[in-house]
Amino acid sequence: MSSPAQIKSPPGSKASALSGAAAGVASVVLGVGLGELIAALVAPSSSPFSVVGGTLIDLAPPWAKDAAISLFGTADKLALLIGIALVLLIASAGIGVLELRRPWFGATLFAGLGAVVAVLAMTRAGATGLAWLPSLAAGLVAAAGVRRLTQLARRGTDASSPAPAADDARAAPGDGGPSRRRFLVWAGAATAVGVIAAIAGTAMQAGSRTVTAVRQALKLPAPAVSAPAVPPGAQLDLTGMPPVVTPNTSFYRIDTALVVPEIDPSTWSLRIHGLVENEVEIGWDELLALPLEESWTTLTCVSNPVGGDLVGNAKWLGYPIRLLLERARPTSDADMVLSRSIDGFTASTPLEVLQEDTRNAILAVGMNDEPLPAEHGFPVRMVVPGLYGYVSATKWVTELEVTRFDKATAYWTTRGWSAKGPIKLQSRIDLPRRGQGLSAGDTTIAGVAWQQHVGIAKVEVQVDGGAWREATLASAISDDTWVQWSIPWKAERGSHAIRCRATNALGERQTETDGWPAPDGATGWQQLNVDVA
Fold first, then answer.
1. What is the spatial distance between Cα 302 and Cα 250, in angstroms, rounded to a whole number?
2. Over 80: is that where the pLDDT of 172 sits?
3. pLDDT of 162 strictly over 50
């Protein structure tokens, strides 16, 4: 019988768990990096990160969406990507340790994960024939990487595992120094190659997008109907007030697209079908040849909390949707239009709203005197005053299906949100700013109020539970836009609570009842607590 000293340990039993973790992390960085590079070459919308992130967005319940927007605002997608990366790195470290202890287990997991994501890639909207390749390649490369690195880790740390002469010719038996250095070099090289590949893939996607060049060279036609000029006094001359016209670069962005779709206008078309007597299809050149109209519309996200900033105002250029629907001639039993984006997102809009001749519901091609920015729907999106964006403002729109609410559901309505989404009356305090260090004396309380397609008649302000005082309204651009308001205040030392409420043009007052954004928009009066020195 062999003595205890003669019993050999299982391969890798003495290897450092830290080495296994490093092998797993380096392998996944290499695999995902190469996957991102391959995606840039063959399927830009099917990179491993975008597939996983897009799937998580689709699966996220409404409360998770609200929580992400509340915590991160318009940086929610960046936060999601960072979260995916952190979870992946932690999981990869564990997979590396598993591979070190149980050869082929970790490699099989990496390959299996790559295959699963590859299958998911083929189910995504707009998937191409090679959509599976980036993720599968990432999984296989990570599997091969973790196999090789854990082999090196064992040789460098397990004295009982003899190393091939090619690896450790100069090492004494049991001396893992050269092999450990070799492991570290290989792990570092794998990580570096992965990072470089990911950067190259990102750069290739940014540099090779001809759509960006097309957009920059595009000159939109002059409108047949021009929007009214911004009236004098619409913008309050107060430091810290938001501009009454939101710059494109500052306009909030909330959508489900982890990767912004890149659509060549020459290939774009819109199809109107469903419960219609005449199916209509229109291309880019035909759309631009129509008499386009300018209009002002403030857009609001249904996830905007009371006092939130997921709201912006812009001048839009487009063609009335009602005129295209007239061509299609919806049947009498139709009551909804299901709009569809190229990335698969859908929105349910009441048909009667799109047919109103007093509402500037348009297929927009321009925003603030320039072509739509890519992240805001280039080349074509919907803009519908008076409805939250989740039921109306479909970006990268390619399809309008005339149907019924009892026969079809949209992306967010299947997740528990209201089907119609009319915008609720809201007001917000912008001045004084929270934490600005206000001094005692004469100052101004100011903000904005909105209820698109209804209009604002009055805003009132209350300080410390006292009497409500009516604020002065700035000039409104139209009933489809927000309006600024202000009221003088003699601030005294101490802590103060400021509240505001609006009354719309129909005489309806903003409700005091606090309500979450889900399922059809937030309610309540904003309260701002300030300290005056």
1. 18
2. no
3. no
CB 338 within 8 A of CB 401: yes
Helix 177-207, helix 17-42: angle, nearest 10 = 20
All residues at 6 or more sequence positions from 190 whose CB lies less than 8 Å from its CB, including other chains? 26, 27, 29, 30, 145, 149
Neighbours of 36 (CB within 10 A): 25
Residues 292 and 165: their CA atoms lie apart, in Å, by: 77
| pTM of the predicted protein model | 0.80
Which tokens belong to 378?
């280039």
CA dist 260 and 382 (Å) reads 16
Measured at the CA of 149, the angle between CA 147 and CA 153, to 5 degrees, comes to 115
Q: Tokens representing 74? A: 């318009």
Q: What is the mean pLDDT of the chain?
A: 90
The CA radius of gyration of the chain, in Å to the nearest whole number, is 29
Looking up tokens 């009892």, which residue turns up? 406
> Could you count the other beta carbons within 10 Å of the beta carbon of residue 237?
8
> In sequence order, which residues have a C-beta less than 8 Å from that of residue 118 and are 6 or more positions away?
131, 132, 133, 134, 135, 136, 139
Q: pLDDT at residue 11 above 80? A: no
Tokens coding 303: 């996830």
C-alpha distances in Å from residue 333, one per residue of 116, 306, 326, 409? 43, 37, 15, 16
Tell me if 268 sits within 8 A of 363, measured CB to CB: no
Q: Which residues have a Cβ under 8 Å from the Cβ of 363 and sit 6 or more positions away? A: 270, 287, 318, 319, 321, 324, 380, 381, 382, 397
User: Tell me, what's the pLDDT at 163?
Assistant: 41
Contact 391/421 with Cβ under 8 angstroms? yes
Mean pLDDT to the nearest integer, 452-456: 97
How many angstroms separate the CA atoms of 313 and 300, rounded? 9
Yes or no: say if 528 and 426 are a contact pair by the CB < 8 Å rule: no
Residue 521 near residue 388, CB atoms below 8 Å? yes
- C-alpha to C-alpha distance for 296 and 227, rounded to whole angstroms: 7
Enter the tokens of residue 475: 């000039």
Q: Nearest-CA neighbor of 339 among 377, 375, 368? A: 377
425: tokens are 């009356």
- The HSE-up count of residue 215 (CA atoms within 13 Å, CB side) is 22
For residue range 222-258, list pLDDT tens digits in order: 999 999 999 999 999 999 999 999 999 999 999 988 8
* SS3 at position 253: coil
Cβ pair 405, 242 in contact under 8 A: no
Per-residue pLDDT tens for 491-503? 999 999 999 999 9
Q: Is the pLDDT of residue 484 over 60?
A: yes
